[in-house]
Design a protein that fits this description.
Blueprint (H helix, E strand, L loop, with lengths): L2 H13 L2 H8 L3 H15 L4 E4 L2 E4 L1 H24 L7 E6 L1 H6 L1 H7 L4 E6 L2 H9 L5 E4 L8 E15 L8 E2 L1 H5 L3 E4 L4 H10 L10 E3 L2 H9 L4 E5 L4 H5 L4 E2 L1 E2 L5 E9 L6 H17 L2
Helix pairs in contact: 1-2, 1-3, 1-4, 2-3
Amino acid sequence: MSKRTLEIFVEVCDQQSMSAAAQSLGMSQPAISAAVSSLEKEYDTKLFIRRGRTLQLSEQGRRLRQYADVILEQYDRAWDSLHEQHSEESYTIATTPLASELFLPSLIRSLEDTQISYISSESGTIMNMLKEHQCDIVIADHNADDSGFTYIPLYNETFVFAASSQYIKENSLSMNALLSKKLLLREKGAGGRQAFEAAVMKKSVQVRPFVESVSDLSLITLAQSGAGIAVLPQRLIEKSLRKKRLHTVKVKGTDLKRQYYLVYRSDMHMSEGFSALIQKIRDCAGKEDK
């Protein structure tokens, strides 16, 4: 029985609902169910009884609940006695390249009083780093619904279709018309590419980019030169829009957004310093989303 599993059990007790506990903890309902099932398997007993839409503790569940708070409190006391004070804690935050460009500058300013080191790499790499304890927090548009991680929604990134007037003068297109144009896209798996492919999925057509790049900046340069229509983060091209080097093209039936998350290991000790760090990141993201 891990500390995290016991914390999940307590939250389900308090909420009397696995779905409500999942929402409160920022986890998926299947992950909550799996944690409760593992406890029941470990103790070879049922801990909850369903009464209509609510869960009530069984007799064995009530016994475990009596000890749970004491166990968790003693665990935290032991941890605090063996580790440095939160003022001396240092953490590593890993972000995707896009989050590094658009969110990291304001985050660094917000965390000037905290000992932080930063890493930027593609989503799969930093999620593996988190799993291997090579970083403490990941900021990415990645939600694998993994019970080993806790996901907290941070902000939405909006993507737009952008082109120069020398390539296309229209400000709106149908999806079919768009697909006939030269598309400038990020590589498969990138946030903007995934948002675009989700929008065209119902058309049952294969996306064939004219240019595929690992760099948003190269796509901006190509779009400004008249090479085609690019899918780009809106915040990244604000300067180009103001200077009329690019204009946005609305495509009927599309709303390209990607949810970014703060991710940490579910077994991470929630010290005072780590909890304060998470809140600072959430506060910073709240300003970004306005």
